[in-house]
Structures are given as C-alpha cells and as structure tokens.
Amino acid sequence: MTTNEGLSDAERWEQGMQVRRAVLGDEHVDRAIANTTELTADFQDFISRYAWGDIWSRPGLDRRSRSVAVLTALIALGHHEELAMHLRAALRNGLTVDEVREVILQAGLYCGVPAANTAFRIASEVYGDEV
In the 8-state DSSP scheme, what is residue 129? Predict the structure, then answer.
C-alpha cells in the first residue's frame, strides 16, 4: 500500500506540499507559488500532487535515498538549476556534504568527468564555506 492510496486530489496536493516544503524549504516553495502564473498553474499543481504527493511520499525509499537518486539523475542529464536546488535539499534530507561528494564522484564514473566537474562547481557555489 502506498501512502497516497485512496487520497483525493486535494489531499494528495496537501500531502505533496508538506513533503515539498520539508525537502525544498518554505522559502523556495513560497517563491515558486508566488511566481505561479496562469501559464504555470497547472504545472505547479501537477508537481505538488504527482512528484511530491505521489512519488516523494511513497514508503519504498527514504528521503536520503531519493536525494541520492535525484542528484545522480540531475548530474547525468545536466539539469544544473535543479541540481543546485536538490543539493540544498540533500542536506535537509540528511546527507552530509561528504556524502554528496561521494555521490558526485560515483556519478562522474558513470555519467562522465565533465558532468562531475560541473556538479562539483555547482556544489561549491551552493555549499560555500561548508566544504
């Protein structure tokens, strides 16, 4: 059984917003909501219900493991803006900077040196004095 089984769309959205805020932080989510336009409203609803209310709310992986998977995918696909956001989220989900370093090294092996090089640059910008 998943944590979202039997939930209405409104309940799934509420659950998604709770998880989204826990992972990304209130400041980020408040900014995303404030910047919602008629063009982006359906997408914001979609990610709140589906990405956060369905997938991130499933019990099969803890948030640390989900962060490792997300970081690796973002490195592999070159989604740098999302990578910066999820590097911050990884710390909220319990990873340490040292563990993120290992994720980037591992990704470098399978995703390529240029991808890891860029990820290390972005991580250095995001973490600043923490590294």
Answer: G
Percent of the chain with pLDDT over 70: 95
Whether 57 and 16 have beta carbons less than 8 Å apart is answered as yes
Interacting residues of 25 by C-beta distance below 8 A, sequence separation 6+: 88, 89, 92
Task: Please tell me whether residues 110 and 88 are part of one structural domain.
Answer: yes
Residue 36 phi/psi, 5-degree rounding, is -65, 135
| Cβ neighbour number for residue 38 with a 10 Å cutoff | 6
Question: Percent of the chain having pLDDT more than 90?
Answer: 91
Residue 82 sits in the same domain as residue 49: no
Q: Long-range contacts: 33-39, Cβ < 8 Å, 24+? A: none
Select from 70, 87, 90, 96 the least CA-distant residue to 122: 87
Collapse the DSSP code of 83 into the 3-class scheme (helix H, G, I; strand E, B; otherwise coil) and give the result: helix
Residues 107-122 have a mean pLDDT of 97
**Mean per-residue pLDDT, 2-21:** 87
Cα→Cα distances 21→27, 72, 77, 93, Å: 8, 22, 24, 12
